[in-house]
Design goal:
The chain is mainly alpha-helical and 216 residues long. The protein is built from ten helices and two strands.
């Protein structure tokens, strides 16, 4: 991994670009009379951007280690803003965001989880098709319970497609089977149900890194 990283750094960075960046920071300090803390924040942002561009060009780089390093930047920037008192709200938000990213990355490293990877993930096109079929099935179930063959005939689709859509609804808790017939759970349908379910899902995602502090 070190050789591809050296190649990416050599291709992306040069002495000329480094001197240009230093000169620009000095210009901000001398001409615009910016505080050194502000200049440091600008330098951190520039370093963050360049590091991301360099890392993205390295093949087979474990993104978890990359996220671990990058999470330190908002923490550092937030600490500077809190220390100077220029913008304590933004500084606190930056520290909180960076801290969460750091904990989430540590959680992924300890559990062996890779961000965005899951055996249950499906392609976006397949997901869109499944949602469309699921909507058709839900519309038919709103008229009353139906069997799989009845739903297939009403939706003009194969039974396998209908079963996939019903499995999707069953996992979401929006439909259930009783005595060979499928029923729609009206309490799980509608905008409020959508907001509630997504709020629970997002909340669970936000608290996931804090499982590190729960004794196993």
């Amino acid at each position: 991994m070190t050789r591809p990283l050296r190649i990416a750094v050599r291709d992306r960075l040069s002495l000329r670009s480094g001197l240009y960046a230093v000169g620009l920071l000095v210009l901000f300090r001398v001409v615009f009379e910016m505080a050194w803390e502000t200049v440091g924040v600008l330098a951190a942002i520039a370093l963050f951007t360049e590091s991301f561009d360099v890392a993205s060009a390295v093949p087979d780089l474990d993104e978890r280690y990359l996220l671990f390093v990058f999470s330190l930047f908002p923490i550092g920037i937030g600490a500077v803003l809190l220390r100077t008192g220029d913008d304590p709200v933004l500084g606190g938000a930056a520290v909180a965001t960076g801290g969460w990213l750091l904990l989430d990355t540590v959680y992924n490293l300890r559990t062996g989880h890779h961000p965005g990877s899951s055996d249950e993930d499906i392609k976006a096109t397949d997901a869109m098709l499944l949602m469309q079929v699921g909507n058709l099935v839900a519309d038919e179930l709103q008229d009353g319970p139906k069997t799989v063959p009845e739903l297939a005939a009403a939706c003009d689709m194969t039974e396998s497609r209908v079963r996939d859509a019903l499995a999707f609804h069953e996992r979401a808790g929006t439909a259930y089977e009783d005595d060979g017939e499928w029923h729609l759970d009206d309490s799980k349908i509608g905008p409020w149900a959508f907001v509630r379910d997504n709020a629970i899902r997002i909340g669970g995602r936000l608290v996931r890194p804090f499982r590190l502090f729960v004794p196993s």
